[in-house]
């Protein structure tokens, strides 16, 4: 009843705000069913259309989800809840393999780049009305895109990949539209899409990327956008192969109006080539983040796309932040120009840990995936059991529920902090969770 959940208000906006406040205070828990429209309307003394409008506002904000006659309920991760807020505190001595962060020892030193950026800024401070994209950074980005076969298009900047994806979705879609997402896939995207009032269509993946038949099914269901991780897919490590990209392009050819987004978030720490889908349809965007290779605090991503898409993104960005800090742009330009990251060395360092864990698990009869990037995905029968048992053994891993829409359970292991001598010990602990009756090595 409303009294139990502190739902009040006479107007739709007031009712919606009271629901959000109740969620924030904890009196409405994720997954809790909301009162039926007419019941709540009677309790509040308002028209049922007012409550319907309030629920519609909450749904469009990603706070609740509706299921027709089954009613409405608070989303498992409402948009008002920070992802960090649902991450448990780690006990002392537990190794954190859950955070998804890069190895800080493999990040380049920033002193020289920041000093040069400061010197450039001193010579010519950035003022209102100047070009939003530094010319040198744009040239470096365009040269890299050309080398990777990304079609020609205007260059833009945002504060990270997720910022770019949010802006392009808002530029092309309307609340209620369907977006095809990798499953399992990046948890932040699974949260962002409903928060924008959009619906999700899960697309299964294997080591070579999205499965063509599942992409075709999502498009036949009416998906208006498709988001694909080029390589280092989070959480599975999938990398779109040349053959898979060709298959996907054939599927996309029948849907020229589809918005296609390529997310290349691990550029700089893998030597596997990128096979973009950009240009397969009329509207597209290719976004490349600096966060994984150069440090998460370098909140900068370069993007390109068709002229209409980039004009829309530029326009909305201009009305909001205006531009990405030129100090950051100068810093990244220096890092790219000087080759601050030895891609071969960094890629090899991650591969030793990632491939070593996948191999060690295979020796113990446990299937795992990790073709590229910094994560290994391990299918498990019971996520809660696996995460709890590993925590008791001194290892913190991420529950697969953070990444899944409808795919089978699993756990994600970030190998960034993993030392080679720890691999067998961790593999034993994982095998004990996946195959509790058989914890030794396969003979």
What is the structure about, briefly put?
Helices cover 40% and strands 15% of the residues. By secondary structure, it is of the alpha/beta class.
The main pleated sheet reads as: 8 strands, mixed
- Total number of beta strands: 15
Principal-axes geometry comes out as globular
By DSSP (H or I, 4+ residues per run), the number of helices equals: 16
Major sheet: order of its strands? 4-11-10-9-8-5-6-7
Structural class by secondary-structure content? alpha/beta
Catalogue the unreliable spans.
438-443
Give the helix proportion (percent range): 40-55%
Rg calc: 23 Å
Q: How much beta, percentage-wise?
A: 5-15%
| Termini gap | 59 Å
| Arithmetic mean pLDDT | 91
What does this structure look like?
- α7 crosses α12 (307-319) and α15 (383-392) packs across α16 (423-434).
- The longest helix has 21 residues, at 343-363.
- The chain is built from 16 helices and 15 strands.
- The model is unreliable at 438-443 (pLDDT under 50).
- The strands form four sheets. An eight-stranded mixed sheet has the order 4-11-10-9-8-5-6-7, sandwiched between helices. Strands 12-15-14 form a three-stranded antiparallel sheet, covered by helices on one side. Strands 1-2 form a two-stranded antiparallel sheet.
- The N and C termini lie far apart (59 Å).
- By secondary structure, it is an alpha/beta fold.
- β6 and β7 form a beta hairpin.
